[in-house]
Specification:
This protein has about 160 residues and is an all-alpha fold. Helix content is about 75%, strand content about 0%. The mean pLDDT is about 85.
């Protein structure tokens, strides 16, 4: 390798190292700015997520009991119980401010976001569908955004106050 190439590689490597150091410094400052959850505390967005998950479970149960049909036929019991149990576990876990439950709910939100965006791009055929899908994207995206900070606080170990 020529001297120029070696020097260029070193400069790039040094710039990357400085960039990583600055990013790590910002990350550390963000971690220090977070307040750990008090005993029994639950972030508001996590409480809302728990309520939404519980309402989904309730709607699944009511829909099945009312005989709602999907594509012209009544769903099998397993098709109803599985999502109801999963959402019920997430509702319980979020109510207890459990990291795994918030993470699971965020996964559901990501699936909703991707599905809604895909539906907007490919399948939206009326103004009502477009507006409804945009509203869904806004609500799910906002939920997701605020849950990130809540997850960081839930995951934090309790620090001793000095």
């Amino acid at each position: 390798m020529s001297d120029d190439k070696v020097k260029r590689k070193q400069r790039v490597s040094e710039r990357m190292a400085r960039g990583y150091a600055r990013a790590e410094q910002r990350n550390q400052e963000a971690r220090e700015a977070l307040e750990p959850l008090a005993e029994g505390e639950r972030p508001t967005v996590v409480t809302l997520g728990a309520i939404v998950a519980a309402l989904i479970v309730l709607s699944i149960a009511i829909g099945y009991a009312a005989g709602v049909e999907v594509n012209g036929e009544k769903p099998k019991l397993a098709q109803v119980v599985a999502p109801a149990v999963i959402m019920g576990m997430m509702a319980w876990g979020m109510w207890r401010a459990r990291y795994w439950a918030v993470l699971g709910f965020q996964l559901v939100l990501v699936i909703v976001l991707f599905s809604a965006f895909f539906g907007l791009v490919v399948g939206a055929s009326s103004v009502g569908q477009i507006l409804g899908t945009l509203a869904l994207l806004a609500v799910a995206g906002t939920f997701f955004y605020f849950m990130v900070k809540a997850m960081a606080r839930i995951q934090m170990p309790n620090r001793e106050r000095q």
